[in-house]
Prior knowledge:
16 helices, about 20% strand, 5-stranded parallel beta sheet, 7-stranded mixed beta sheet, about 35% helix, alpha/beta
Amino acid sequence: xxxxxxxxxxxxxxxxxxxxxxxxxxxxxxxxxxxxxxxxxxxxxxxxxxxxxxxxxxxxxxxxxxxxxxxxxxxxxxxxxxxxxxxxxxxxxxxxxxxxxxxxxxxxxxxxxxxxxxxxxxxxxxxxxxxxxxxxxxxxxxxxxxxxxxxxxxxxxxxxxxxxxxxxxxxxxxxxxxxxxxxxxxxxxxxxxxxxxxxxxxxxxxxxxxxxxxxxxxxxxxxxxxxxxxxxxxxxxxxxxxxxxxxxxxxxxxxxxxxxxxxxxxxxxxxxxxxxxxxxxxxxxxxxxxxxxxxxxxxxxxxxxxxxxxxxxxxxxxxxxxxxxxxxxxxxxxxxxxxxxxxxxxxxxxxxxxxxxxxxxxxxxxxxxxxxxxxxxxxxxxxxxxxxxxxxxxxxxxxxxxxxxxxxxxxxxxxxxxxxxxxxxxxxxxxxxxxxxxxxxxxxxxxxxxxxxxxxxxxxxxxxxxxxxxxxxxxxxxxxxxxxxxxxxxxxxxxx
Length: 496
């Protein structure tokens, strides 16, 4: 291996750290360039002077084997870096003040819960999850590690045999309703799709694999928060020789003879033999590349279906809140209406669903003794108007419902409050339209129909992250970094 092969990775979220680790393991000198002061991208942490530590983004640790596989590739395991705890209950769904579904970690208990709500649904749940397990195994073994550059990637006998069982062309909503009739069970099964970025009727039933991940593989929590996972991946990178440049914004990617020649940061320019762009795909194309080197025009991006943005509140509360679990989903409003107001008729929602994460239920380190740490998230249409007046209005709207449910005047117990919304996603991550999760997983934006992982005009430039394959979410982003790194390694090896 040529020790002088220099690679730049732009962005230090999960995809960027993953790509950097694999590239360095292959023997290249890798620089990770991050515009923010700290690494982690959306998984950065916010630490306050009065003793709170907030995960700013991801809070659901699903698909633990993806993390295990990443660390195993470098001769280690998650337990070498952080303690993983399975949550029980996995999560709770609130339909009303006295109407709550507590989702147990134990599968037999979950079956009993389903049966208590709808006769015969325990057997239906087992059948549903058996199908979902097939999709999960096939998806994880056969689909997600493909770069999506050619249809020949799918000339696989196992995939061909199972194409109908994968249900790529069946709507998720129709699939769920084929098994369950009770609206609570339907809402429970459909909730992961809201975070995949499309209405259930527009999402392929393939994504019931998410139900398998959440209900059968379990919901986990890394003690110390998701920042511990970022720290662990950064340690892996460092052990491979990766160098980090934080607080450094890339201003241009220079191209010569259809190859990246240099990356420009401020007044500095450095030559590189290849680039992984793990920053926002649209930003890289529109702001860092000349028009003739872009994969897509602005009109293409404007037609994409984006996953939601979010209105987030980070709250420090000076008392304990007994009625909240680690993950609590408030479905005491119409899911369909909120989804319409995100995807079909973009507007601030009339009666929003929202999610509350209270990691202090599982981790004494994230809040002072006797206090709670609350992360409140409301899905919101991307690209929508965002200002302090609207944030304040929705804070009160959400808190009215949360206080009614918990029986605690939380607003009077606050000793920390910070909001985060569309404008912040754009400012901090150059996020297209302020999206929080990337590209929606609709049929027309699945696999090869996502923005290409490869720049078609710049031979040594590849993309990684939530706007390309395999899609949004922490595990897919880790996989995306590996896939894009492999493409760049292949290119370099073929062009020595």
